[in-house]
Amino acid sequence: MPSFTYKARIKGKIQQNTIEAEDEKSAYAWLEKRRIKPLSIKIKLGKNPFARGKRFFAGIKITEQKITQKDLVIFSRTFSTMMSAGLPLIQCLDILGSHAENRTFGEIIFNIKKRVEGGENLSDAMKKYPQAFDSFYCNLIESGEVAGALDTIASRLALYLEKAAALKKKVKSAVVYPACILTVAVGVIVFLMIFVIPAFATMFEGGDRLPGPTAIVMAVSDAFRTKWHYMLGTLYGGYFFLNRMYATNRGRIIIDKYSLKLPVVGPLIQKVSIAKFTRTLSTLLSSGVPLIEGLEICARTSGNKTVELAVMQTIEAIKGGENIAGPLARADVFPPMVTQMIDVGERSGSLDAMLAKIADFYDEEVDAAVGGLTALLEPALMVFLGIVVGFIVIAMYLPIFKMGGNI
């Protein structure tokens, strides 16, 4: 039975104690019976090989590690291989917990093993640790338990996670390179404004009226040197406003809606969303998850509020007796080709296979879009930097040419 550590104010003092209970709800009930109102309560990770390491490094504070997609891929692939080889479930979890590189993930696997030994289903045990296993993962494991095909489901999960990680990597590559070029460009401009332009300013003091371009550059340089805190404050204010707006449901709907309409970047975001939606739904349906439940999971994990709302409207339409393709077409998020292929897949009874083909097609489309975006942004940023630097140089030399003409 798992242990829970709680903090509570008892007789005016905050005290910390440990209790054993089946789950967090039972722990709260146990404390309530004794008229103890906990300030916080969390599960205490059980004894495992990682605990010995913690005792050895008793003087070192070991922080909790973030569970990455790579950890889940390795877990799923190894779990599938061991289950296919006929190893018992408990033994599989014991081996996976012992060999996990991520200490936090290893501890979670050992706790899941204990719960399974206590009579829980694997999927129910995994649901207790949402920081490692989301609803998508747990639903697929549950369908594998019902069908008696945990090895097959684990293999599908590993394949899905690998493709999702590859898609995420493509998107990052589309952002990182232009961001680096833009950072260098901004750095060069800031350097010129703070360190180079002031040297020219001393040359032009007390002279004739400066040409318009020169006056503009001087004013901008002066702002960089004397009003930099206002500029940083404005940038931070803009970031804070957008961040707070995105944290609200309505704000996120507005931002996600217009992000799909952005030039160049918008089509890439749409293709990534379609690839993710079709890949997720295909994996869920091929693993035996019902359509409505699969669509609900897709909506929660879409990452874009516009896509989420379109899927939720589709769910309501399906409950009303419609097929899946019609509502998706009306949502104006999915291209006609996608909805037509979904309609064909639904009519032929091979919706999961058709969705997988759409996902593969859009993975290739994302590849092409990323390549095109990189090819377009690189010369565009170079031209931008050349125009800005050229304008600054010309603006600084205009007074010099004027003085030369007067002489």
Structure, explained:
This protein has 407 residues and is mainly alpha-helical. The chain has 3 domains: 42 residues; 65 residues, no CATH class; 243 residues, Type II secretion system (T2SS), domain F (Receptor-associated Protein, Up-down Bundle), CATH 1.20.81. Helix content is 74%, strand content 6%. It contains 17 helices and 3 strands. A 3-stranded antiparallel β-sheet has the order 2-1-3, covered by helices on one side. β1 and β2 form a beta hairpin. α12 packs antiparallel against α13 and α13 packs antiparallel against α14. About 4% of the residues have low confidence.
Please give a quick description of this structure.
With about 400 residues, the protein is mostly helical.
Secondary-structure blueprint:
Elements: E1 3-10, E2 13-20, H1 24-33, E3 38-44, H2 49-56, H3 69-84, H4 89-99, H5 103-117, H6 122-127, H7 135-147, H8 150-204, H9 212-226, H10 228-247, H11 249-259, H12 265-286, H13 291-300, H14 305-319, H15 325-330, H16 336-348, H17 351-406
Antiparallel strand pairs: 1-2, 1-3
Helix pairs in contact: 3-4, 3-8, 4-5, 7-8, 8-9, 8-12, 8-17, 9-17, 10-11, 12-13, 12-17, 13-14, 16-17
